[in-house]
C-alpha cells in the first residue's frame, strides 16, 4: 500500500470525528428522549446509522479517550481508572496512522493527554480541556499550567481580560448547579470550538484528505449554556430520574464528586442546565455541518459523533460517571457516511451491535481503505453500517477508584456487575428493564443467566496484576489500580 494515499486514483474520504464529554446515550431526540432537543444530531443519525448498544468500557475522561485514539481495550492501553499525570506514549494511534498515509490531521478542543501539547500523532493541536484541577496546582512547571497551553483560555482572556476564566459563572466544573453563561455567546467554549473547526475547513491543505477531531467539553459541567438555551427548557416538566428498587435515596444536602442532590427543585435546575448544554452544542454542530456543505466536503466525508462517557443525572440517586450503570456507560454513537464515499452502499438506520469506543479507530481505518494494526482490539463497524455481521457477544467494562471500583459484563440483553472492594453483585435484564430499576441478582428465574456472565468476567480478569481472580472465583478486596504497570513505567 502506498504511504501517501493522496496519490491514489480513488479519492480518499475526509474524516470528521465529533466527540463531546459526559453525554448520556439516551439524550437524543431520535433515541426517544421526551425532553431534550437535538435536531442536528438527529439529522446525522437519520442519514447514517445509530448504534443502540454503544458503550464506553471505562467511564471517565482519560481512559475513554485513550481507547478512542488507540483502538485498544483498557487492558492493553492500561488506563482502567482516572489518574492525571501519566505520559501518553502510545505509538500508531489513529491520527499517527492517518498522517502516515497522507492525511492532514487536526485536533480542536479537548484532548486530556499528558504532558500537555502531546500530539498523539496529530499534525496540529488547538486545545481546550475544560477546567483541569491537576494543571492548576502551583507545584507544576509553568509550561504545564493550563493557562499556558490552553488555546481557548488565551482567547477568552484576550476578549474579556486577564482574569477571565471558565468558572466565572460561579458554577464549579463537577457540579450539578447550573446557570447561564455570563459572557457573549461567541465567547462560549462550544462556539469557540466550532469557530476553530470552520477556520480549519477554510484554511486546510486542499490537496490532502483530512481528519478533524472536533471535541467539545460540554455537556460536562459547568452547565452554563447561553441564556436562550436555558429559556428553551424553562417551566418544563421533565421526565424524573430513574430510581431502582435497589438504590438508596440520598439526603438533599449531599454534595460531592459522586452524589448529586435529591431535592426535586435542584434536580430540575440541573436537568435544565444539562439539556441546555446539549441543545446548544447540537446547534453549533449544525453550524459546522452547514460550513461543511458550503465548503463542498460534507458528502465526501465520514462524520462520526460520540461521547467519552455518560452522566448519571440523578438516576438511582447518583451523579457524574465512573458507575457501571447505563447512564454512565451507555453513550451515543452516530456514523454518517458521505454519499460520495460509501463503500458499503446504503446504510441501516440502526444497529443492534454491542459497540465500544475502541471500535471507532478501526472503523475509520477500514472506511479509508487502510489496514487495521494487530494491536488494535476494536473491530470495524463498517459491516454493521450495512446491516451485516456483529461486533462482539459481550463487553467487559470497569472503573477503578476506591470503594466504587467495579467491573461489568454487558450484552445486548443484560448486564452483570461486580464491585471489587465490597463483593457486591448485581444483575439487570436490560431487554426488559433498560432503566435498571430491578436488581435481579437473587431472582430464581434469572439464576441460570448470571453464572455464565460471572465466568466471562473471571475469564477477562485472569492474569491481571491486581489479582482479582485465581481463575476460578472473583477475589474481593484486592487493591485496585487506576493505571496498569506497563503504562505507568512507560
List the helices and strands and how they pair.
Blueprint: E1 14-20, H1 39-46, E2 49-55, H2 61-70, H3 74-77, H4 94-100, E3 104-109, E4 124-127, H5 146-149, H6 151-160, H7 189-203, E5 210-215, H8 227-232, H9 264-295, E6 301-307, H10 326-329, E7 333-337, E8 350-356, H11 360-367, H12 382-385, E9 395-399, E10 406-410, E11 414-419, E12 425-429, H13 447-461, H14 485-488
Parallel strand pairs: 1-5, 1-6, 2-8, 3-4, 3-5
Antiparallel strand pairs: 2-7, 6-7, 9-10, 10-11, 11-12
Would you mind describing this structure in some detail?
- Strand 11 (414-419) and strand 12 (425-429) form a beta hairpin.
- An eight-stranded mixed β-sheet has the order 4-3-5-1-6-7-2-8, sandwiched between helices.
- The longest helix has 32 residues, at 264-295.
- Helix content is 27%, strand content 14%.
- The chain is of the alpha/beta class.
- The chain is globular, with a radius of gyration of 22 Å.
- It has helices spanning 39-46, 61-70, 74-77, 94-100, 146-149, 151-160, 189-203, 227-232, 264-295, 326-329, 360-367, 382-385, 447-461, 485-488, and strands spanning 14-20, 49-55, 104-109, 124-127, 210-215, 301-307, 333-337, 350-356, 395-399, 406-410, 414-419, 425-429.
- It is built from 14 helices and twelve strands.
List keywords for this structure.
490 residues; alpha/beta; 8-stranded mixed beta sheet; 14 helices; Alkaline Phosphatase, subunit A; Arylsulfatase, C-terminal domain; 12 strands; 4-stranded antiparallel beta sheet; disordered N terminus
Amino acid at each position: 500500500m502506498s504511504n501517501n494515499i493522496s496519490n491514489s486514483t480513488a479519492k480518499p474520504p475526509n474524516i470528521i470525528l465529533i466527540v463531546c464529554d459526559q453525554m448520556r446515550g439516551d439524550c437524543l431526540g431520535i433515541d426517544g428522549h421526551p425532553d431534550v432537543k437535538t435536531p442536528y444530531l438527529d439529522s446525522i443519525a437519520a442519514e447514517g446509522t445509530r448504534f443502540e448498544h454503544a458503550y464506553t468500557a471505562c467511564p471517565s475522561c482519560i481512559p475513554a479517550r485513550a481507547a478512542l485514539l488507540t483502538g485498544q481495550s483498557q487492558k492493553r492501553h492500561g488506563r482502567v481508572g482516572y489518574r492525571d499525570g501519566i505520559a501518553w506514549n502510545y505509538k500508531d494511534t489513529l491520527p499517527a496512522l492517518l498522517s502516515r498515509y497522507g492525511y492532514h490531521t487536526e485536533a480542536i478542543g479537548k484532548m486530556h493527554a499528558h504532558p500537555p501539547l502531546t500530539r498523539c500523532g496529530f499534525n496540529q493541536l488547538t486545545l481546550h480541556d475544560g477546567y483541569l484541577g491537576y494543571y492548576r496546582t502551583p507545584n507544576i512547571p509553568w509550561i504545564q499550567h493550563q493557562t499556558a497551553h490552553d488555546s481557548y483560555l488565551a482567547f477568552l482572556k484576550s476578549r474579556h481580560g486577564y482574569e477571565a476564566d471558565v468558572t466565572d459563572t460561579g458554577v464549579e466544573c463537577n457540579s450539578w448547579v447550573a446557570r447561564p453563561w455570563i459572557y457573549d455567546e461567541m465567547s462560549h467554549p462550544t462556539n469557540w470550538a466550532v469557530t476553530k473547526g470552520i477556520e480549519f475547513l477554510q484554511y486546510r491543505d486542499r490537496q490532502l484528505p483530512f481528519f478533524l477531531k472536533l471535541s467539545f467539553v460540554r455537556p460536562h459541567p459547568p452547565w452554563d449554556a447561553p441564556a436562550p438555551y436555558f429559556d428553551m427548557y424553562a417551566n418544563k416538566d421533565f421526565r424524573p430520574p430513574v430510581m431502582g428498587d435497589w438504590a438508596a435515596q440520598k439526603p438533599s444536602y449531599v454534595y460531592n464528586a459522586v452524589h448529586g442532590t435529591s431535592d426535586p427543585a435542584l434536580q430540575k435546575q440541573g436537568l435544565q442546565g444539562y439539556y441546555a448544554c446539549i441543545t446548544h452544542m447540537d446547534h453549533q454542530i449544525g453550524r459546522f455541518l452547514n460550513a461543511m456543505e458550503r465548503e463542498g466536503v460534507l458528502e465526501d466525508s465520514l462524520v462520526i459523533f460520540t461521547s467519552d462517557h455518560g452522566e448519571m443525572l440523578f438516576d438511582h440517586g447518583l451523579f457524574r460517571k465512573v458507575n457501571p450503570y447505563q447512564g454512565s456507560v451507555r453513550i451515543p454513537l452516530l456514523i454518517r457516511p458521505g454519499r460520495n464515499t460509501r463503500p458499503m452502499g446504503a446504510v441501516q438506520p440502526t444497529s443492534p451491535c454491542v459497540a465500544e469506543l475502541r471500535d471507532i479507530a478501526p472503523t475509520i481505518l477500514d472506511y479509508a481503505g487502510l489496514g487495521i494494526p494487530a494491536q488494535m482490539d476494536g473491530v470495524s463497524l463498517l459491516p454493521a453500517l450495512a446491516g451485516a455481521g456483529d461486533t462482539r457477544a459481550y463487553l467487559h467494562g470497569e472503573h477503578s477508584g476506591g470503594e466504587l471500583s467495579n467491573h461489568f459484563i454487558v450484552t445486548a440483553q443484560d448486564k452483570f456487575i461486580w464491585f471489587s472492594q465490597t463483593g457486591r453483585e448485581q444483575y439487570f435484564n436490560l431487554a426488559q428493564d433498560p432503566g435498571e430499576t430491578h436488581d435481579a441478582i437473587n431472582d430464581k428465574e434469572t439464576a441460570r443467566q448470571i453464572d455464565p456472565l460471572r465466568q466471562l468476567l473471571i475469564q477477562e480478569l485472569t492474569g491481571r496484576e491486581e489479582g482479582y481472580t485465581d481463575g476460578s472465583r472473583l477475589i474481593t478486596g484486592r487493591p485496585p489500580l487506576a493505571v496498569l504497570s506497563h503504562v505507568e513505567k512507560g
